[in-house]
Design brief:
heterodimer, A: mainly beta, four-stranded antiparallel beta sheet, 11 strands, globular, B: four-stranded antiparallel beta sheet, 0% helix
Chain lengths: 113, 115
């Protein structure tokens, strides 16, 4: 099976712009979660989607949003970018049931100038 | 609320020596515990998990972890470290309540294995 893929791998944006990141989960996985990773804060949970519905949400401002499509692919959007949004954004998928582990993509490195 | 603590930001160990990466957790209810490893410029890779049953869990690449309920710990161990084990290690916990709750990660421990 192909792993979790994320596009693009690298992005450079300027303050005030918006960005959309994409994640394709492992085939058959219906849950997609997004995390922000920074050196100071570690891994912070953004949100989880399951069968096109947001199932969980972390403590991030409304500038961060996401969605999931019927094929389980997911996108996250960050509007009005701030310097502090520079981070590695990780997507993870799992079947969505039980206590099974998540499988992570390689991440999208976002730099905000 | 659930939380995970990895008390050491950095662990250094000589190649061939045993290694331990520490993790303690705090949850209301039964914990489900995970270890992940991250190599440079890569996403996280699953190593092992504890759900129920035997307190000693064996995982990928020769790693194992011991669940200790009384000490609320889930330390990662390996009998003989390799230079290639050098990476960032994350402990994570989930509590299963009425629905699926997200994984909560520790801040990570950087392991350096010195030849």
């Amino acid at each position: 099976k192909a792993g979790v893929t994320q596009t693009p791998r690298y992005l450079i944006k300027t303050r005030g712009q918006q960005v959309t990141l994409s994640c394709s989960p492992i085939s058959g996985h219906r849950s997609v979660s997004w995390y922000q990773q920074t050196p100071g804060q570690g891994l912070q949970f953004l949100f989880e989607y399951f069968s096109e519905t947001q199932r969980n949400k972390g403590n991030f401002p409304g500038r961060f949003s996401g969605r999931q499509f019927s094929n389980s692919r997911s996108e996250m959007n960050v509007s009005t970018l701030e310097l502090g949004d520079s981070a590695l954004y990780l997507c993870a998928s799992r079947t969505g049931q039980g206590h099974n582990e998540q499988f992570f993509g390689p991440g999208t490195r976002l730099t905000v100038l | 609320a659930q939380s995970v603590a990895q008390p050491e930001d950095q662990v250094n160990v000589a190649e061939g020596n045993p290694l331990t990466v520490k993790c303690t957790y705090s949850v209301s209810g039964n914990p489900y515990l995970f270890w992940y490893v991250q190599y440079p410029n890569r996403g996280l890779q699953f190593l092992l998990k504890y759900i129920t049953g035997d307190n000693l869990v064996k995982g990928s690449y020769g790693f194992e972890a011991e669940f200790n309920k009384s000490q609320t710990s889930f330390h990662l161990k390996k009998p003989s470290a390799l230079v290639s084990d050098s990476a960032l290690y994350f402990c994570a916990v989930r509590v299963m309540n009425s629905g699926n709750t997200p994984l909560v990660f520790g801040k990570g421990t950087r392991l350096s294995v010195i030849a």
